[in-house]
Amino acid sequence: MSSEESPQITRRTTRLSAANSENAVDSSKSCALKPLSVNDLLYGNSPISLEELISSFPGRRGQIIELMSLLGPVNSPMFPTFVYGGSSTGKTSIVLNIFRHLRRPFVYASCITCYSPRILFESILNQLMLHRKSDSNGYSSIKRCDKPSDFVNLLREALSGVIGTLQGNAEKAGSKKAARWPNGKMVYLIFDSLNLVKEWEKSSTILPFLFNLYDILRMPEVGLIFISNNSLDTYYADTGFVEPFPFHFPDYSEDDLRQILLKHQVNKNLYSSFLDVVLRPFCRITRRVNELSTALLPLFKKYCEPLGDLGAVPNEDMKRKLYGHLQRHIAPSLNETFRVSAGLTSGASRSKDNERKGIVKKLEACTSSNELDFHMSTSAKFLLISAFLASRNPATLDASFFDSTGGSDNRKRKRKSSAKSLEQKETAEQELLMKGPGTFPLERLLAIFQCLTSVAEYSPDVEGQGNRATMGDSGYIGSHVLLQLSSLCNANFITKGGSCPLEGSTRYRSNVSEDMVLKVARSVKFPLSKYLYRR
Amino acid sequence: MGLKNPAEQAVILLRSRLCNPNFIFTLFSDSPDSNYSKLKYIISSSVTESCNNSVLLLGPRGCGKLAVLELVLEDLLREFPDMISVIKLNGLLHSDDNCALKEIARQLCLEHQLAFSKMASSDENSQFLIAMLRECGLAHKTVLFVLDEFDLFAQGKQRLLYSLLDAMQSVTSQAVVIGVSCRLDADQLLEKRVRSRFSHRKLLFLPPSREDLQRLLEHALLLPSGSDLPHEFVANFNSKLLNIFADKKFKDIMDTVFNTDSTFKQVLTFLFSALCHLDLKRGFLSVENFKDALSNIQRQPKLECLKDCSILELYILVCMKRLEVREHETCNFNSIMKEYKSIHDSFQTTDYYARDVCRRAFEHLLRRELISFLDNRGHGHSIEFRPVKLLISWQELYQGLKSYGSCPAILYKLVERETTT
């Protein structure tokens, strides 16, 4: 501890600051990073040839050639281009690799990382002015810029600077170093994920501004490329904007997907026979490469289970056997296509146990095990149940459900259901489907929670894990309950609805499905059905 | 640096022509009743007669308003050197008054080699502006204010417009205010006090006629004989191009382009696309290049989007369409799931997937903007309860299903049936 080591320092130094002061000496001695130059506006260290480019993107030969013809020969001006297509279709990587192949300098800004106009503008200016954020300048940008008018002025300056350097390079061409220099005198600006700009506050001015940027700048040495998920017609503006040249990346077809998935496999024959069986049903759900590859991974492991040698080339007989082994797993796995498993190891061991017992997992069992697969404290579980009941039951019935005997022993006597009441039940069900869970104020939630926990205390069935002490007396709601509430809100189990216009207090809404609450109630042995209002 | 392929050089030359609006519009500046001559007359007369003036250039986007203005300004700067200074403002950038005043001050300082201070307040900037106007007026220099996207300046309190036009009237100044807008009613947006100070001179810019289009084609694409391209290549290229222009198929293509959208911007985009398709090995344009260009600019984005959907997503769209036809006012994910289940129960489809999978497909559709939430404020509700609406029509959905390829027949039946009931 620093305060013990150096007792003559009167001010207490924390451990963190002491550690930092040691490191600060080291960093100044460490070699400073090289200053950036125009050569750093290229992508990748080594250039690639056209054949390499096309072979690394199966199924995209047409798009690559067309995009290269749009960019044109070196030093030819271009109209701003708008590249659009679905997710994970390769737009960004193809554009960047085309620039790597052509060795032309560009500036890249993605609207995912640059989430506000100021960050977007400063990122582009930093790259153009060859400024690197480092410790010496306090990780600040080279210029502060948050208005489009400042951005245009600074951009003009920066672009003229870069273009001047490139023209100087072009005149010195022929020296040995020229091989590593960028080609041509044009600079390209690439704006990625443009569809996210629609959700910004000032999107109604920023979007037309970006599309009109080429006309505002009036510099033929600048090329603009926009990449987006959605087509141009989803970018509506009041008075319109100058439309860039649209370029579409269609989603991959099944054959392309097969080539892409086969690309990095060790045993291509085995995987190809696997895909013969599995690709078509999965393509009916989704054709995105990222989702397919994660969904097919566990299934492939299962496919290879009976094989002793993973490098084997399967013949027809083996293929049939493997298919027979896999078949009953395909349908349940389709229903788990998008599932991100919480604990991969525990799931795997669990399945091994089941295999040993010879249980075939059926569809229902797969999707809804009777246990929660994450841990919650007991008071959080009761809070969740109270929230669900508060959302589900109408407030007027609280008194009858939650009276001092801790539950409604006197249920409504069942009347014979006439046709009219059946109809009413149906419409009520429809309403429930449409409207969703109701809102409740905080006081109601806490009142129900108090009632439920007092019941739980007196009931002998509650899991006694020493939690009774923490729940306290029936009249005391500790602050830990309110903390639990805020963590439940953060986990999206409870959301804050709008505030009631008369009272002004915030109202909450429970977001969990009935299945989950049943699981939770089962885990604390709480009789949920007694408290649910059924119409 | 070896000799470039002459085709490549030609392509670079033509592309720089198409991307340079000044080149294109010099063609239309010769006739006396063109907008070019009228505009030139207005501005030059106010320069020579030392008076104030204001004019509005109106017309749809891509019809050459700014390009013609640039040509006029270039010519006037050559004719009257040192008598004109130009200040350019853009509504997208400078609609905020403080921003605009700062920009005006900056450009004035730049022009007259004065030191510009970024820290000046907007009061100081406006006083500077008035002082400069007075000085320029006394020195018989005209200040031209070009206000692009004029309708954006007319939003809010219009303080900048008022101060400019007021200064023109009260101070001994020589200024011309040129507003450029794509809204044909831009002058109706002005406040009463601003409109009274504005002369109601308007120049209308229209898309070209068919004959003008033909002249434009030849002007833009025929290679000039004076360039440093080999003479034989130029002659070959031009003769082949003239043959194409006379071809009937080409005339049909041009008619299609003219009928859909005949603004200059669209035609230039079409020519640019045709140039991109030029086969560099052959070196000449052909009718196929123009056909490819036509399909490039005539896109059907919603159809393309539908072709990219997976079969489960198509099911969800068809369910929504059926709910819409049955006149349910709003539908949300739960009601769609109910419909999905009922389809499965009645037709025994093979495509019945779990709720989680369907919810993810639903989110994909939201991302593609084929469906959207009805209101943007309902963030408190979970995704299953928020009402959604379809953003495509029945015809688009039907066309999309037809061109899908491996669409299950049940979906056709479902969509067709709903139209007859």
TrEMBL record, chain A:
Residues 376-532 form the Origin recognition complex subunit 5 C-terminal domain. GO terms for cellular component: nuclear origin of replication recognition complex. Keywords: ATP-binding, DNA replication, Nucleotide-binding, Nucleus. Its main location: nucleus. InterPro entries: AAA_16 (IPR041664), ORC5 (IPR020796), ORC5_C (IPR047088), ORC5_lid (IPR048866), P-loop_NTPase (IPR027417). Residues 1-22, 401-428 are annotated as: Disordered. The keyword Nucleus applies. Residues 271-322 form the ORC5 lid domain. One of its GO terms (molecular function) is DNA replication origin binding. Residues 57-159 form the Orc1-like AAA ATPase domain. Belongs to the ORC5 family. One of its GO terms (biological process) is DNA replication initiation. This is Origin of replication complex subunit 5-like. It comes from the Eukaryota. It is found in: Nucleus.
From TrEMBL, chain B:
Transmembrane segments: none annotated. Keywords: ATP-binding, DNA replication, DNA-binding, Nucleotide-binding, Nucleus. Its main location: nucleus. Belongs to the ORC4 family. It comes from the Eukaryota. One of its GO terms (molecular function) is DNA replication origin binding. This is Origin of replication complex subunit 4. Component of the origin recognition complex (ORC) that binds origins of replication. DNA-binding is ATP-dependent. The specific DNA sequences that define origins of replication have not been identified yet. ORC is required to assemble the pre-replication complex necessary to initiate DNA replication. It is found in: Nucleus.
